[in-house]
Write a structure and sequence with these properties.
- The structure is a single chain.
- The protein is built from six helices and two strands; from the N terminus they run H-H-E-E-H-H-H-H.
- The chain has helices at residues 2-14, 29-42, 92-102, 127-136, 138-151, 162-175; strands at 50-52, 82-84.
- Helices cover 42% and strands 3% of the residues.
């Protein structure tokens, strides 16, 4: 996937200064997240498959109508699969407590301070994500700085660069006792 991702970003954004990645509609999610995962899901027998995910009401985009059993809409065949969002009505704290007690294996990046399993160079990353990247993988952080010099800030509409995000993330990490 990495080779495909590099080609995708390079062809679409890095070779064209007039196009910036969208922070609202991340078109990379389809080919690199939803499509490969959905290909596995639709290969499972519908009658005996229950799709579980970590969706929570607090993470919903305004205007969306979702509940504990809303089916996935990222693939037409998935609408008939049984879907359950067990953490939907839980607070973040209760969801983390449930995960800890259940012994569900979590991505090791969370222990490093990452907020989500996003691409390391995602222009939509939050400050805590940028801070974790700077702290754990300074070489990748420098790669983002290199590309910012070439094509501009990661979040041009906010006039914010990667180092601005790192500073915001460091302050938030200190305030929340995450350092």
């Amino acid at each position: 996937i990495m080779g495909s991702y590099t080609e995708y970003c390079s062809d679409k954004y890095q070779h064209n200064r007039d196009i910036q990645p969208s922070l609202l509609y991340r078109d990379c999610q389809g080919p690199f997240i939803h499509d490969p995962v959905n290909a596995v899901k639709v290969g499972l027998p519908m009658e005996t498959t229950l799709i579980l995910d970590g969706s929570r009401a607090t993470q919903m985009v305004r205007g969306r109508k979702k509940n504990k059993t809303t089916p996935h809409k990222s693939h037409p065949k998935l609408k008939n699969y049984k879907t359950y969002h067990p953490c939907f009505d839980l607070t973040d704290e209760a969801a983390y407590d449930l995960l800890e007690k259940s012994k569900v294996p979590l991505w090791r990046g969370y222990a490093m301070g990452f907020q989500r399993t996003a691409c390391w160079c995602c222009p939509g990353m939050c400050g805590l994500q940028a801070y974790a990247l700077e702290k754990n993988f300074p070489g990748l952080a420098n790669e983002i700085r290199f590309w910012e010099k070439r094509i501009g800030f990661m979040q041009p509409m906010n006039n914010k660069g990667f180092d601005d995000l790192v500073r915001v993330g460091a302050k938030k990490a200190e305030k929340e006792g995450l350092l």
